[in-house]
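Sanity check record (used in CI):
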Amino acid sequence: MTGTLQASSGAPYARILGVGGYRPRRVVDNAEICTMIDSTDEWIRTRSGIVERRWAAPDETVAMMAGEAARKAIQRSGVEAGQIDCVIVSTVSHLHQTPAVAPLIAYDVGAASAAAFDISAACAGFCYATAMADAMIRSGAATYVLAIGVERLSDLTDRSDRGTAFIFADGAGAAVIGPSDVPAIGPVVWGSDGEKAPTIYQTQGWDEVVGPHGEAREGEPRFPTLRMAGRDVFKWASYTVAEKAREALQRSGIAPEELDAFIPHQANDRITTAMTRTLGLPDDVVVGRDIVHQGNTSAASIPLAIEALYEEGAVRSGQTALIIGFGAGLVYAGQVVVLP
Ligand SMILES: CC(C)(COP(=O)(O)OP(=O)(O)OC[C@H]1O[C@@H](n2cnc3c(N)ncnc32)[C@H](O)[C@@H]1OP(=O)(O)O)[C@@H](O)C(=O)NCCC(=O)NCCS
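Expected output for Beta-ketoacyl-[acyl-carrier-protein] synthase III:
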C-alpha cells in the first residue's frame, strides 16, 4: 500500500440550533384513565404528577408526528432542510422492524439524501442521539444532524394495567444540531445496566404472537405491551441516575448555581424532584415539569419539555440546561447543553 489514508475532521464543537415538538390532538385526563383502571385522579396526581396526557389518533403516526416536530426544529434552527446530512430517530414504538422510520422522515422533511437510521434507547434516546450528533459533527462524519425522539406508547400500553396505563403517552420532539465555535454540548455521561432489564419490558416478542412463518401460537396470543416494576425503576432513577446527572454536571465544568435549567426525562414528577434535591440545585434553577400535561413520552419527553419552557418564557437562548434521559435497558445518558 502506498497512499496515505485520509481521516475526517469536523467542527471544533457542536450546538443545538433549534428544537420543535408535536403534541397529539387528543387530551386524555385522569378521569378517563380511571374508567379503565381502578385508580383515582388524586392518586395519579400525587404519585406521578400527571394531570393529563395525549394519545395519538390513527393519522398521528410515528412518522407524521416526527415530521411535524422536525419541521418546527428545522425552521427555528435557520438551517435549510437540504443541509441536514444525518437523521437519527430514537423510538421504541415504530412497529416495523425494517425499514427504519428515519429515512422516511428524512425524505418527508426535505433531507432526502441524509444518512438516516433509528436507535433503540428508550427514554434515554434523545440524549443518546444528542451525544452521537455531537461526536459526529466534531469528527466530520456529519455537519447538521436532525435528532428526533418520537413515541406512540399508547399502542404498547395495556389500558387495564394499573402500573402503566396512566403513565405512558404519545408525542415527538426534535432538535437540529450543528457546528459551533464554542463548546455548547458538554461531555456525555452514559451507560447501561442490563442486569435490570426485567424492570421495564415488553410482555412478549412478536414471534410469540405469531410464528415467523405465520403459524398460530398456543393459548391466546396478545399484542405485546409494556410492563414496569415501578418501585424498582423509581429507586434506580432517584439514586443511581441522579448521581449520573451530578457527574454530567461536574464534567461540564458548570457549578449547580451557574446552571439555568434542569430538564430531565419526564418519567415521574417525584423522580424529578428527588433528582433536583440530590443535585443540590438552587431554587432559581428552572425545572422541566412537562409531565403534568404530557405524561411520559419516553424519547420525546426532553425536547417536548424544552419547547414547553420556551413557550412559558421560563428559559431563553444561550442559557445552560442539564438534560438526562433514563429508561428501559436499563440505559441512561446525560449532558449539559446550551439552549438554542
Ligand atoms: C408507577 C409508580 C407511580 C407507582 O407508584 P408507587 O408509589 O411506587 O406505587 P406502588 O406500586 O408501590 O403501589 C403503592 C400502592 O398503590 C396501589 N396502586 C398501584 N397502582 C395504582 C393505581 N394506578 N391507582 C391506584 N392505586 C395504585 C398499590 O396497589 C399499592 O397499594 P397498597 O399500598 O395498598 O399495597 C411509581 O413506582 C413510578 O413512577 N415508578 C417509576 C416509573 C417510571 O419512571 N417509569 C418510566 C421510566 S422510563
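The pocket of coenzyme A is lined by residues 37, 39, 43, 47-48, 123, 162-163, 166, 228, 230-231, 233-234, 237, 267-268, 271, 296, 327 (CB under 6 Å). If this sentence no longer matches the regenerated C-alpha cells, the check is flagged for review.
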